[in-house]
Amino acid sequence: MQIKILQNLLEANEEKAQEVRDFLNQKHIFMVNLISSPGSGKTTLLEKTLPILKQKFRVAVIEGDVETERDAKRLDLYQVPVSLINTKGACHLESVSIEKALLAFDLDQLDLIFVENVGNLVCPAEFDIGEHAKVAMLSVPEGDDKPLKYPLLFQEASLTILNKIDLLKYTDFDKTRFYDDLERVNPNLSVIELSCKTNEGIDAWVDWLDKRRIASLNRLG
Amino acid sequence: MQIKILQNLLEANEEKAQEVRDFLNQKHIFMVNLISSPGSGKTTLLEKTLPILKQKFRVAVIEGDVETERDAKRLDLYQVPVSLINTKGACHLESVSIEKALLAFDLDQLDLIFVENVGNLVCPAEFDIGEHAKVAMLSVPEGDDKPLKYPLLFQEASLTILNKIDLLKYTDFDKTRFYDDLERVNPNLSVIELSCKTNEGIDAWVDWLDKRRIASLNRLG
Hints:
Two copies of one chain form a homodimer.
Chain A: H1 2-26, E1 30-35, H2 42-53, E2 59-65, H3 70-76, E3 82-86, H4 95-102, E4 112-116, E5 133-139, H5 146-149, H6 151-156, E6 159-163, H7 175-185, E7 190-193, H8 202-220
């Protein structure tokens, strides 16, 4: 019975997610769901990305956190609309919260929405929130063994960002093993190596977003 | 109704956890629940700790992972009993799995059991698994802002290990902010700063385990 109820919850979430996506499609908004462990650098990447993207797109952020408005405040500086969801203990975002968070925006004035999910490599991968692409972020100090140990996220993602590559020389991270494992989990997954310290990879990331957004709009015809 | 069922699940988990703890107490076994994000260094800490502890105690490890037996295999080298729980997607361990994992051991031949929980800073904090102490591990590259953003774990823990302090000089980690926030979340929490690279803090950790184990046994009278 517990399994049946979980099934119903997941189905309800997916139905709502599809509604959210349909609605975003009508508005020609591209939405990215950014997922990683706590401290991999999701907020810092947004801090680096927003000033560049703002020159080209109308951008907003939905910020998911268990507690505090710290990350939302960090992003406030970049003068884009930010909608905060405090999950109060819950370990992932669901589509029903995204629908509510979207109401805070003027959706006729947006091209691109980032959702920064709760810091967690496990649960957020299971929940479609109506995004067009899941981006999995992993940072070098977390270790090269994560794709095999947490495969679902890397199977669901359209892109993996390998962050904090400036720390490669101070850690035992084995890039060969990382790419081999990733290939086993999801052979079609693109990877961008990135550092918010040196800015390496930022251009490739902005370029990926740009192309992916256009591809998504083109599919709508 | 969903909330009611979750409540029942949590209550059932706690009841079973108390049974596990009572059973361990009968056997004079001290059990530690090690919790952190993926890649904070739980397995590496065990690799450093087991050779030292083995000289003094009879030790075993319960290894919780979403997938793979990689971490369990890493610990096999240290010739202590290891019992693996693959949660197949679940984001935390529960007491019912611990009870089963304990059956793999000869419990009359053990003094100390480490449980390496699933890599996740959110969900494992909610589930009592019958341990005597929760140890929260955070690594420097994850950032100083985690105690306030994920408060439950730091409230529940008896000790925080700040790991990878060898990376302090390459990151923006602010120790003052970290300790201030931790004080707000849990003023009684001990902290050990540690590096598995330089071995700094390993002695303090072994010492903490020793004292804490004795205190736990003394409470039983």
